[in-house]
Amino acid sequence: MKRVLFIAEMNEIVKNMNEAMLPYFQVQLCIADAGMAGQLLHIFQPDIVLIFLSRLSRADVMGLNILLRENANLPTVVVGSMYEFQTYGLNINAKQVRGLTRPISNKEVIRTLYVSLGVEFPSEQEQLEKADVRKHILFIDDNPLLLRSMKALVEGRYRVSIAVSGSQALDLMQRDCPDMIFMAYEMPVVNGKIIYKGIRANPQFAAIPVVFLSSIAKKEHIKEILQLQPAGYILKPADKERILNMITQTLGK
User: Which one is the CATH code of 136-251: 3.40.50.2000, 3.30.70.1350, 3.40.50.2300, 3.90.226.10?
Assistant: First the structure.
């Protein structure tokens, strides 16, 4: 499947668009933060970028404009109102950028993604046969190299999303709820313990299995982690077989 980096702010339209794309593409959601989007471009390595302008600030769009110029060869589809295009001055005349004006159907957006990629749009029957029904795993870590290696490790068997912070992870989960989470315990600003408690406090996410990844092997530290009663604990650097076995034990083959 082709990879789409979907940059948008959370709302029902975005959630519906994400769900509509899942049978056609491997989708990575990202909030409208140029720094975070830049990290995910490096980690996720998308084939195309989709940007929804709704609810974005002028500063958000300016940052994304710079990012698009730095990645001028990456196909990009931008969806917005006439007012948003005129107000933000996003360069939709660039060679690899296509602009779509709302209102527009999800199917037309998906069709435009295919056209931008130079790929033939599949029939409904063909897409049903190709639909990605694999279990969905979310990796949360502030280390881009670790995220990239974890993604490469399991994406052949599972649908994978990545997040570089707790806030991004929780935002992503609202739009595309995972079946299992692997999360770094030590992270700057908001650590894994706080994120975990936030996940457990939400009834929608309370039952999702969470496995902690930690680089500290001290007995007291491990005891502190296990007191939270996660689905598991793995010491970094994570062993490939241990990760895969943990997933199999939790989600089945």
Answer: 3.40.50.2300
